[in-house]
Amino acid sequence: MEPLTPDMAAQLKVGRKVSGLVLTEVDLAVPAMGKSGQGDSSIQINGVNVKTLDEYNKELAAAKTSDRPYVMVRFLQRDRDGKWRGRTQDIEPQW
């Protein structure tokens, strides 16, 4: 994950209102990550908005100490028509 910079936003052709983090690497060995791809933009972790790496790491740390077996991630993903769509996905982290 990296912060979404103006240059990245232009390259990914996302609107100016989009902010947050960009998925830059995908570990296909992690369950459910095969459904995510480079360039996806994370906007929430377990219902909490995240716009910085610090916020992202804080929410992942909180999820790690909870009893939940998964982390719910809401992100923007480009569909086959090239339009950005919001998507929610439960991911089982390998702590």
Total of DSSP H or I helical runs spanning 4+ residues: 2
Distance between the first and last residues' Cα? 17 Å
Low-confidence stretches: none
Largest sheet: 6 strands, antiparallel
Q: Number of folding domains?
A: 1
Here the CATH topology equals Pdz3 Domain
Give the helix proportion (percent range).
10-25%
Mean pLDDT: 75
Assigned CATH class = Mainly Beta
Shape: globular
Element-by-element helix/strand order: EHEEEHEE
Calculate Rg over CA atoms.
Answer: 13 Å
CATH architectural group: Roll
SS elements, strand count: 6
Strand content bin:
25-35%
Task: Please identify the structural class as seen in this structure.
Answer: alpha+beta
3D structure, described in words:
The chain is of the alpha+beta class and 95 residues long. It has a single domain, classed as Roll (Pdz3 Domain), CATH 2.30.42. The chain has helices at 6-12, 53-65; strands spanning 2-3, 21-22, 41-45, 48-49, 71-78, 84-91. Strands 1, 2, 3, 4, 5 and 6 form a 6-stranded antiparallel β-sheet that branches. It is globular and about 40 Å long.
